[in-house]
Specification:
alpha+beta, Aminopeptidase, 5 helices, acyltransferase, GNAT family N-acetyltransferase
Length: 175
């Protein structure tokens, strides 16, 4: 199942091999990935990631959707987002090129993922996490109607340390 979700300003679509350079622009940026368990990526790691995205598109039934975010007006790839469903729950996430931070694109993409999860995947609850000091991501989750459930203490180990996560969620009837 090939996916293309349109919002007012964005097209969320499946990745193609040619997307790797635009993805690498932000995936290799230490500022972008400082709160992430991955990165900064080498060119080889980004190409492997794009290959994994394309392989994910072949899953049947497809329950994981890692999409690229492109500007509707120009087609320029500016970020990525994803939704992964399991049973009645799904998790969303998003990463954007810092040249496009502060323009509302993350909120626009994340809200589109909520609608897709509830309307197309039929999930009941969608959640997302961020590191406690990632205030911009927390604001995105709040802006799209998610509610803070609490802090998961030192549940992740990456980049040589244990990390906390703030957990947010929204239920289908709250959208």
């Amino acid at each position: 199942m090939s996916i293309s979700i349109q919002t007012e300003r964005l097209i969320l679509r499946d990745a193609v091999p040619e997307d790797w350079a635009a993805i690498h622009e932000y995936a290799s940026d230490p500022q972008v990935v400082r709160h992430s368990i991955w990165g900064p990526n080498t060119e080889e790691q980004t190409k492997e990631y794009v290959a994994q995205l394309i392989e994910m598109q072949r899953e049947m039934p497809r329950m994981s959707f890692e999409l690229v975010d492109a500007l509707k007006e120009t087609g320029e790839l500016i970020g990525g987002c994803g939704i992964h469903a399991a049973g009645f729950n799904a998790e969303i996430g998003y990463t954007f090129n810092p040249r496009f931070w502060g323009s509302g694109y993350a909120s626009e993409a994340a809200f589109a993922l909520l609608r897709f999860g509830f309307e197309e995947l039929g999930v009941h609850r969608i959640y997302a996490t961020c590191r406690p000091d990632n205030e911009a991501s927390a604001k995105v989750m709040q802006r799209i109607g998610m509610k803070r459930e609490g802090r998961m203490r030192e549940h992740l180990y990456f980049k040589g340390a244990f990390h906390d996560s703030e957990l947010y969620s929204i239920l289908r009837h709250e959208l």
